Amino acid sequence: MLAERTKKIKPSPTLAVDSRAKELKAKGMDVVNFGVGEPDFDTPEHIKEAAIKAIKDGFTKYTPVGGIDELKEAIIEKLERDNGLKYEKANILVSSGAKHSLYNIAQALFGPGDEVIIPAPYWVSYPDQVLLNDAQPVIVETREEYDFMLHPEVLKEKITSRTKAIILNSPSNPTGFIYTKKALEQIAEIALKHNLYIISDEIYEKLIYDGEKHISIASLSEEVKNKTIVVNGLSKSHAMTGWRIGYAAGPQEIIKTMTTIQSQSTSNPTSIAQKAAVAALRGPQDCVEQMRLEFEKRRDYLVKELNSIPGVSCKMPKGAFYAFPNVEKILGKNGINSSMDLSIYLLEKALVAVVPGSAFGAEGYVRISYATSMENISKGINRIRKAVEELR
Ligand SMILES: *Cc1c(COP(=O)(O)O)cnc(C)c1O
């Protein structure tokens, strides 16, 4: 008999679409995959070189559980430089990816009876990580008209004596929207008043367009910082998804507990990948800017094309590499009644993989990743247009 908690969770739905698309591809079908959640760029050369050097130098043994000092120092420099946040090494934990850092947080903070506020559309792992720790996710809807930000009045209504934390993600996967300073201030004020922790997933920080600026909620004040755990990593900023390096920065006591948890599960993140991460953080950053510019070009093209498809409307996202078009007007035609039906139709009929909004707790939308070439975007969008026009 499997443990009770395993009955509450499901495999990541984004990975499910991805694997069906890959299945069709393996059969020789020419699938355009808009389901991907990782940069299509190669890891920059100087980062790879640092890892090769680490191997050759024999840097291939266990390291301290929470990461090597050199990497923690590079992370501290980054947080101060980019976010205006001052931390000590005791405030930092390096994990095997940001997802792992988030899981360590869930283990350290959540338990039976706790409620955790998660604005929808949400990243798929948040609710399941809460459930795996026997706590209750409280899904709070956001609105397209308010750029999918958590509204302070709606937040207030959802807080109970059991509420333990809020999980924020800006720039957001799946919507691509970012929180304004004002919205963050309003949320932070409520969080402080009710003594809630704020978990701030900032993994898409480097992918922001139109001159907008990323603000870490922890930077609002010392009080807010003391209740916030910032999560970030190299996967999206430096095209390093496979290296598995992410980190958390927060109050010492929490980081210490998370480190103990990590010591009893995975131990240190890969030694070689840690050296690569040091090179990524301390080396030249023009590679990051090049990728950002390319994403911005694709976004502009994709969103313009999406809006020219009858029944589809897409607000211009400000960050990450996803468009989150509203497809409500298409639903109801030809027995296509949900974003899942539409995703299946597009994959099987038009050979285009998108992720249904329902996977992120938001019916009436689909997520389209533009972490793929201009050529693929152009081909995929034409197929979507044709398939949608055939629906009556
Ligand atoms: C990709 C992603 C992560 C996980 O990143 P890793 O560092 O590769 O584990 C975390 N949060 C969001 C919102 C993501 O999209």
From TrEMBL:
Family annotation (CDD domains): AAT_like
Question: What is its EC class?
Answer: transferase
User: Which molecular function terms from Gene Ontology are attached?
Assistant: pyridoxal phosphate binding; transaminase activity
Q: Which cofactor does it need?
A: pyridoxal 5'-phosphate
Gene Ontology biological process: amino acid metabolic process
Q: What is its EC number?
A: 2.6.1.-
Identify the keywords attached in UniProt to this record, alphabetized: Aminotransferase, Pyridoxal phosphate, Transferase
Pfam family example for this protein? Answer: Aminotran_1_2
- For the Aminotransferase class I/classII large domain, which residue ranges apply? 30-384
Record's family? Belongs to the class-I pyridoxal-phosphate-dependent aminotransferase family.
Write down what this protein is called.
Aminotransferase
The scientific name of the source species is Thermodesulfovibrio autotrophicus
